[in-house]
Amino acid sequence: MTQTNRLQHAAIGATRIVVGFLFLIHGASTLWGFPSEPASGVVAQFGAWPGWWAAAIQVVGGTLVMLGLGSRVAALICSGSMAYAYFVSHQPAGLTPVENGGETAALFCWAFLLLAAVGPGAFALQSLLPGRRSATAPATRHADAGVRAGAA
After folding, report:
1. pTM of this prediction?
2. pLDDT digit string (tens) for 63-85?
3. In whole angstroms, what is the distance from residue 115 CA to residue 123 CA?
4. Residue 117, Cβ neighbours under 10 Å: how many?
5. Which of 24, 48, 62, 133 is buried most deeply by CB count within 10 Å?
6. Distance CA 74, CA 25 (A)
7. CB-side neighbour CA atoms (13 Å) of 95
8. SS3 sequence of the chain
């Protein structure tokens, strides 16, 4: 793996950890009022649609993405939940995210979609599982390995 590839791999991993953590605390705020009160000022009631379910996806999905466990699937689900939030809660109030207050939902949606596409990057716990390798880690094979093997 080249120095550039290692840096890209680390940057993807760091982004995954930060985005997952931010999503986790956003959901924790809505579910439990921790680490701060939710933006609405009210903690979601158990089972209430869509607030409680969205917060549950945020806590579980954010944790999985942050840890790098099943992160592609978790990121895709998180992205879908934010697309739903944007189009149902924000978009009817205005055309652009600046007008309708949907910047956070839009950013989370696209960040998770990107992570679902490129994989978990470095520092993912799933790479420690037997027979698993991070999906974004390129093989560490030298370009001239075949030439050397044939010359022997």
Report:
1. 0.83
2. 999 999 999 999 999 999 999 99
3. 14
4. 12
5. 62
6. 16
7. 0
8. CCHHHHHHHHHHHHHHHHHHHHHHHHHHHHHHCCCCCCCCCCCCCCCCCCHHHHHHHHHHHHHHHHHCCCHHHHHHHHHHHHHHHHHHHHHHHCCCHHHHCCHHHHHHHHHHHHHHHHCCCCCCHHHHCCCCCCCCCCCCCCCCHHHHHHHC
pLDDT in tens, 41-68: 889 999 999 999 999 999 999 999 999 9
Amino acid in position 57: I
How distant, in Å, are the alpha carbons of 5, 116, 121 from that of 107? Answer: 25, 14, 19
Question: Which position has the token pair 């030439």?
Answer: 147
Q: Is the dihedral of CA 66, 59, 78, 18 positive or negative?
A: negative
**Residue 38 and residue 15: Cα distance in Å, rounded?**
24
> Could you tell me if residue 96 is left (phi over 0), alpha (psi between -120 and 50 degrees) or otherwise beta?
beta
